Amino acid sequence: MSSLYEAVTEARTLLFVPGNRPDRFPKAVDSGADIVVFDIEDAVAPAEKDQARDNIGAWLDEGGSGIVRINDDATPWYRYDLEMLAGRGCGVMVPKVTCPRQVRQVIDVMRPEACVMPLLELATGIVDARDICSVPGVTRAVFGNADLGRELGVDHADRDAMFFARSQVVMASRAAGITPPVDGVTTAIEDLDLVRADAEHAAKLGFTGKLCLHPRQVKLVAEAFGPSAEEVRWARAVIDAFETGSMTAIEGEAVGKPIVARARLVLDRIDRGRVAEA
């Protein structure tokens, strides 16, 4: 498995940096984020998209790594973004995906080791998420709460309003056999308590990572997706009981194979966190 694939599938924190600000590229890489998303889409004004694309291409040509968020296929910049990506093996985040064809178009122009991540942020993409996630070459899905909220006419930060859509993306990823998905952004950049609460909510639903808009969000998000001390204590008790053959119940909870499997996943999250911190 390539180091890029491992980075994309194990990432808890994915930090956006605008493609028109190459001075921020090294700072984003040094921020502590697991992986950086170089953006040509929402963070870049139309007049600066060509320069942003050139900046990102130069970064990749010089040996830099990361994920590139391109413009969607309904824009005039899409074909130029694809031309820049052709023959590369980097990560790509494809916005506003509503059908498998949109991800196949990107996969077809890239090298086999490329990691393609559909951004599911429109109602049609959410409803058809399993088909999209099942396309060979899709590495991990991303939930886009901001655009979905706009389309539905609801507050993108309202967890109740977004509950079904988030769960749909988690279920689709599992059914397709790919890595659990990445949650969307918390746009209230200064509200660090909200960032933590949003990340903890996403983790409870089955997400294993989150998009970050600012370096100050990175540490909080990473902590939220790591197991708590109480979860670790419970998981170790379950595994110890299982391995000694004394397993019947733990703290009044009947313990069977699914419970043991969940305990192993909790402990695996510790190991993944250590990889990310190394």
From TrEMBL:
Record flagged with keyword Nucleus: no
Chain sites annotated for binding substrate: 69, 121
Binding-site positions, Mg(2+): 121, 147
Gene3D superfamilies, per database record: Phosphoenolpyruvate-binding domains (3.20.20.60)
GO BP of this protein: oxaloacetate metabolic process
Cofactor(s) annotated in UniProt: Mg(2+)
Any one GO molecular-function label of the UniProt entry: magnesium ion binding
EC number: 4.1.3.34
Leader sequence segment: none
InterPro entries linked to this entry: Aldolase/citrate-lyase_domain, Citrate_lyase_beta/mcl1/mcl2, Pyrv/PenolPyrv_kinase-like_dom, Pyrv_kinase-like_dom_sf
Domain HpcH/HpaI aldolase/citrate lyase: 12-215
Domain of life: Bacteria
Keyword set, alphabetical order: Lyase, Magnesium, Metal-binding
Protein name per the record: Citrate lyase subunit beta/citryl-CoA lyase
